[in-house]
Each structure stands twice: as C-alpha cells, then as structure tokens.
Structure prediction request, 112 residues.
Amino acid sequence: MDCSTAESMVNRYIDHTLSVNELESFLEHVEECSSCYDELETYFIVHKAMEQLDENGKDQILDFRELLEEDIRKSRRYILKKKFFRTVFGVVICILAAGLAGFLFYAVTQLL
Prediction:
C-alpha cells in the first residue's frame, strides 16, 4: 500500500468502515510508515477531542495516544477473529464436501 492510499483510508479507519482486508493492509502500512502513523494519530486525536466536546458536562482528560494504541489493538484482534472464523468456515465446508462425496460414492457403489 502506498501513502496516498493509506491517507485516504484514515477517516474510514476512524469510523470503523474498512473491510477486513483493507483494515489489515492499512494497519500494516501505518505500523511501518511513521508519516502515515502521524497522520492517523492527528486525525484520531481531533476526532476523539471532538467527541469529548460533544459530550456535554464531561470534563475528563483522555490520553489520546493510548486510545489510538488500544484502538489498533482492538482492530488487530478483530482481524484475527475474522480470519479464524473464515478458516473454520472453510474447514467445515471441506468436511461437508468430503462427506457428501463419500456418501455419493457409497450410494453409487451400492447401486452397481
């Protein structure tokens, strides 16, 4: 992924609207590219600060950098869960296909 593509995905990352594949590529890029990470950090901080301002009466001080790191960790866990379930689904489909093939083979040999 190049920097312009990553930069175009920052808002979608913050809004959590990237697909799993996009999310994985994006995170790999920003973890390797300090310029894009800084861009993400800036937008993330502005977004969280605006959220805090929108919450009337909340005078809490947030560690925005820690919030970003936690968000990245959650995104990584999300990717792992999605990959795990895709793998499990694939294995189940293969087992079902093998079972069906075995059943059909058995049925055909019984007819002959």
In short: The chain has a mean pLDDT of 90. The chain has four helices and no strands. The CA atoms of residues 81 and 87 lie 10 Å apart.
